[in-house]
Amino acid sequence: MIMTSASYSLFSVSDSLLQLNSRCKLTASITVIHSCAIFDVGQRRQRLDKLASILSRVPVNTHVHFEMASFGQVECLQDIVDTVVRHSDSIGMNEQELPNLLSILSIGTITAISDAYPRVATTLDQMREVYHLLRRMTEGIVGVRRITRLHVHTLAFQAVLVAENDGGSPSWKNVGSAAARASLAASRHTCGDTDVAVSQSRLLVDDSFSLSIEHGSGRMAFEPEQPVTCWNEIMNDHTKTQICLAPVLVCTNVVQTVGGGDNISSAGLLIQL
Predict the structure, then answer these.
(1) For the whole model, what pTM was predicted?
(2) Residue-level pLDDT at 242
(3) What is the distance between the alpha carbons of residues 216 and 45, in angstroms, rounded to a whole number?
(4) Cα angle 106-112-118, degrees, rounded to a multiple of 5
(5) Longest dimension (CA), the chain
(6) Mean pLDDT, consecutive 10-residue segments, the chain of 273 residues?
(7) What is the per-residue pLDDT for 218?
């Protein structure tokens, strides 16, 4: 797993990135954040095109994960979608970044305001739509990496969507365990403790949730003995997917929040390789 530490190091690590024998390469948000913040439009696109060129040469059977961040510039996020996202088969994001990605994919803009405490059903619908739009973006193109994994980490829950690859076999393993690991990582990171202190935590989700905001959608219940809830769905492009959702024991004595997304995503990603 490789994390490019900053955009200015991109050229120096490209050969090492390609030569390293790993099952997953991680494209860090910090790389593209630096590109948005310190370079003009032309320089930014040049560097992102270089990153896209590197990612395009990574073997298709090697996973590439991109961890989203908060992007306030429409043009920058569009460049990232065109160059980095299209070469990734796994994307991680939080509850603010998910609607941002959906908005740039569907109408070419970003959201001014997003819900800090979204309903499970709303998040699931947005994940399905993002999956559909990303799959459509690479439809019919031979030899490209297609999205097969989405991980959304919110304050209250973790949701992981995994699709079968084009060969029909599962592209990622341990989906339920990944959601559980991510949930535990969230609690441990914010409380600053390797142990999960139940006395300093609380649940923000109900004991059941709707699968969609659409009228007539079903409901799923959290089972105390098996808190991670998983189910299968057929998407619009007829791919089979598995979705797993785990509630988070939200820390009530917060020690740290910086770096939470990276820690949570990596905890879930590691167990799926």
Answers:
(1) 0.90
(2) 96
(3) 45
(4) 80
(5) 54
(6) 41 56 58 62 85 87 88 89 92 95 96 90 98 94 88 97 74 94 94 87 95 94 92 92 96 88 90 90
(7) 93
Q: What is the CB-side half-sphere exposure of residue 42 using CA atoms within 13 A?
A: 0
pLDDT at res. 4: 35
Find the length of the chain: 273
H/E/C letters for each residue in the chain?
CCECCCHHHHHHHHHHHHHCCCCEEEECHHHHHHHHHHCCHHHHHHHHHHHHHHHHCCCCCCEEEEECCCCCCHHHHHHHHHHCHHHCCEEEEECCHHHHHHHHHHCCCCCCCCCCCCCHHHHHHHHHHHHHHHHHHCCCCCCCCCCCEEEEECCCEEEEEEEECCCCCECCCCHHHHHHHHHHHHHHHHHCCCCCCHHHEECCCCCEEECCCCCCCCEEECECCECCEEEEEECCCCCEEEEEEEECCEECCCCCCCCHHHHHHHHHHHCCC
pLDDT for 31 equals: 53
Question: How far is it, in rounded angstroms, from Cα 160 to Cα 246?
Answer: 9
Report whether 88 contacts 56 (CB < 8 A): no
